[in-house]
Design brief:
heterodimer; A: about 120 residues; mainly beta; seven-stranded mixed beta sheet; B: about 110 residues; five-stranded mixed beta sheet; 9 strands; globular
Chain lengths: ~120, ~110
């Protein structure tokens, strides 16, 4: 089974802190994604990466950055955490078995519930 | 991507089939229908997807109408563990992760 592991289940940080959320997948997937989930707003895409050192902005990239130095690891960085970044953060990965650039399905981690005080 | 409409909630008796409808009347010819579910406090889980033919896997069946304007996800023998929020998503197959999850249907399976 594909495993997408997020480093923390719950995290509490203070306003202004730099926060790192880590995600590791064990199936050699090319594509990795960061979403946030808020009540009433559903899942929103923050950033995604389709290769090492490559990244693309999603719908809500402001206040976030990402790093993908190795294929299996995708990090989400909150440069200066704010209270409106309190949310559930979900990492996902997907693969392209035929090399056609077609994403078949996403595999999600269990999420990190971040509270910024 | 086409918009989807799902009922906000449904109940199902344990052991019975759960039929979850989804309306996607603006779907275009190259858009696929995907179903995911999210059990409380977990990340979403892929269930099934299809283009125009009915599909079945170990988790569920997907029935797509001939005009492709609606579909139904069928869980043949619902268990308490199937209680979750079910999301119907319509999108073009691509290598981006821009899935728009919407509000979904909360399925409550009752003993």
């Amino acid at each position: 089974d594909v495993k997408v592991t997020q480093s923390s289940r719950y995290l509490v940080k203070r306003t202004g802190e730099k926060v790192f959320l880590e995600c590791v997948q064990d199936m050699d997937h090319e594509n990795m994604f960061w979403y946030r989930q808020d009540p009433g707003l559903g899942l929103r895409l923050i950033y995604f990466s389709y290769d090492v050192k490559m990244k693309e902005k999603g719908d809500i990239p402001e206040g976030y950055s990402v790093s993908r130095e190795k294929k299996e690891r995708f990090s989400l960085i909150l440069e200066s955490a704010s209270t409106n970044q309190t949310s559930m953060y979900l990492c996902a990965s997907s693969f392209d078995p035929a090399g056609t650039g077609v994403m078949l399905r996403l595999f999600f981690g269990s999420g990190t519930q971040l509270s910024v005080l | 991507d086409a918009k989807t409409t799902q009922p906000p909630s449904m109940d199902c008796a344990e052991g019975r089939a759960a039929n979850l409808p989804c309306n996607h009347s603006t779907i275009s010819g190259n858009e696929y229908v995907y179903w995911y579910r999210q059990i409380h406090s977990q990340g979403p889980q892929y269930i099934i997807h299809g283009l125009k033919n009915n599909e079945t896997n170990e988790m569920a069946s997907l029935i797509i109408t001939e005009d492709r304007k609606s579909s139904t996800l069928i869980l043949p023998h619902a268990t308490l563990r199937d209680t979750a929020v079910y999301y119907c998503i319509v999108r073009v197959r691509s290598n981006t992760g821009k899935l728009i999850f919407g509000q979904g249907t909360t399925l409550q399976v009752k003993p």
